[in-house]
Specification:
By secondary structure, the chain is of the alpha+beta class. It has two domains: 2-231, Glutamine Phosphoribosylpyrophosphate, subunit 1, domain 1, CATH 3.60.20.10; 254-430, Rossmann fold (3-Layer(aba) Sandwich), CATH 3.40.50. The chain is built from 18 helices and 24 strands. The structure holds guanosine-5'-monophosphate, iron/sulfur cluster and magnesium ion. The active site is at residue 1.
């Protein structure tokens, strides 16, 4: 998902709209914006793309200088309208709106406990659990309630809470999901990715630290470290696939990280006996950076062998397999004159189910490619993610059942290589990563979600 927040900037709704637009790649199932005019909070949300719900008319209804917005990619809870964010909490103690990215792994336990104590939940999303946790605290200021509430949460979360006159941005203690802050005029903006800051003229940006809460009010910002049991475990998949190439996460530009992963793949090929190919082709859009890197390091020409139809959304993000398969067919086509008779070094960012690679290789061979060698800019995904990236079922992961040779055969490639975890870390120049979907070492407890690992 994508989260965007504004504190104390004129036309907060319009700013949030622009911010969310830059984050649309993070979720396309639903979107919403809540604003505060310092007295009351209003919220509009709907299914589909941002432009399906918002236009100049709807934005005009959202008045105020504070806002939180959300674009949704559902991994926990279905796509019912009750689960669409921001989630509004209205009570006699005050109102607030929450936008959340990530996945709370102990949401079920917390929810059951609260239901046994009389709480009623509207939807099935874990975000509502955060609202209830804040709400049920009887003592203390709102700030103290948030600090207490987050102590109960386990998993991946980066969220924004907006009240009538203040806002909070929170990151989990492992820093699994990204969230940054920037200055705009006399106010502030918060975003899942830094790519959204350019369009709103954000300056002096910084990442919120793991285990940190940033409080925004009219006195400025306050940094609150709510726990010192922190680690730096940024989701590796943010660099590999999820984020936009013009974003920087923890000081590392995403395009640069991908390009270095491509260079690493070529370096390994050179060491292991050379490269037998004519051209390098990346799968648009997320693999183009890695393909550029591979071409640079190998000396082979980088070519546009595949073209993407820009008017088809991210195939993976579509909830069902049937929608995804149709999506791939609509989305990519081979450039016949470029690939005909060529030995192709095809670079992709990851293999999840294997459907995309298999289809692309078929496309390239139908268009006359003589050989297709596949290099993947990440390790083989052998384990499900419980932190908000939709590879939740192990059954669907091709590398959970097959080794690289078998996957190579399934996708009908002439050869296939993945990066190993240490090679990826060397390429990205950081070890501060979650790599659980590649090695099964989860940085948090999994509660009953872990049962899934044993069953399958
Ligand atoms: P599959 O192997 O499942 O057919 O597709 C993998 C491709 O889907 C990757 O090349 C990647 O670009 C794209 N993709 C879309 N969403 C995601 C995601 O959430 N995680 C990963 N790893 N890849 C994704
Ligand atoms: Fe990211 Fe994989 Fe960790 Fe999930 S398990 S947070 S996809 S690195
Ligand atoms: Mg891809």
């Amino acid at each position: 998902c994508g989260v965007f927040g504004v504190f104390n900037v004129k036309d907060a709704a319009a700013l949030t709209y622009f911010g969310l637009h830059a984050l649309q790649h993070r979720g396309q199932e639903a979107s919403g914006i809540a604003t505060s005019n310092k007295k009351e909070i209003k919220c509009i949300k709907g299914k589909g793309l941002l432009t399906d719900t918002f236009n100049s008319q709807t934005l005009k209804q959202l008045k105020g200088v504070h806002a939180v917005g959300h674009v949704r990619y559902s991994t926990a809870g279905g796509n019912e309208i009750e689960n669409v964010q921001p989630i509004m909490v209205r009570s006699h103690k005050g109102h607030f709106a929450i936008s959340h990215n990530g996945n709370i792994v102990n949401a079920k336990e917390l929810k059951e406990e609260m239901e046994n104590n009389g709480s009623i939940f509207q939807g099935t999303s874990d975000t509502e659990v955060i609202g209830h946790l804040i709400q049920r605290e009887r003592e203390g200021t709102f700030e103290e309630k948030i600090i207490k509430a987050v102590q109960h949460l386990e998993g991946a979360f980066a969220f924004c809470v907006m009240r009538e006159n203040c806002m909070y941005a929170v990151r989990d203690k492992n820093g699994l999901r990204p969230m940054s802050v920037a200055k705009v005029d006399d106010g502030w903006v918060v975003s899942s990715e830094s790519c959204a800051f350019d369009i709103v003229n954000g300056k002096d940006e910084f990442d919120i630290e793991p285990g940190q809460i940033i409080k925004f009010d009219y006195d400025g910002i306050k940094k609150i470290q709510y726990t010192d049991k922190t680690q730096k475990k940024m989701c590796a998949m943010e660099y590999i696939y999820f984020s936009r190439p013009d974003s920087s996460i923890e000081g590392i530009n995403v395009h640069t990280a991908r390009r270095l992963s491509g260079r690493m793949l070529a370096k390994i090929d050179k060491e292991q006996g050379g490269i037998e190919a004519d051209i390098v082709v990346g799968v648009p859009d997320s693999s183009l950076s890695a393909a550029i890197g591979y071409a640079e390091e190998s000396g082979l020409p980088y070519e546009l062998g595949l073209i993407k139809n820009r008017y088809v959304g991210r195939t993976f993000i579509q909830p069902t397999q049937k929608q995804r398969e149709r999506g791939v067919r609509m989305k990519l086509s081979a450039v016949r004159d470029i690939v005909k008779g060529k030995r192709i070094m095809l670079i992709d960012d990851s293999i999840v189910r294997g459907t995309t690679s298999r289809r692309i290789i078929q496309l390239l061979k139908e268009a006359g490619a003589s050989e297709v060698h596949v290099r993947i800019g990440s390790p083989a995904i052998t384990h499900p993610c419980f932190y908000g990236v939709d590879t939740s079922s192990r059954k669907e992961l091709i590398s959970a059942k097959m080794d690289a040779n078998e996957v190579c055969e399934f996708i009908q490639a002439d050869s296939l290589k993945f990066l190993e975890i240490p090679e990826m870390m060397e390429a990205f120049e950081t070890e501060d990563l979650c790599v659980a979907c590649f090695n099964g070492k989860y940085p948090t407890d999994l509660y009953d979600l872990g049962e899934q690992l044993e069953e399958e």
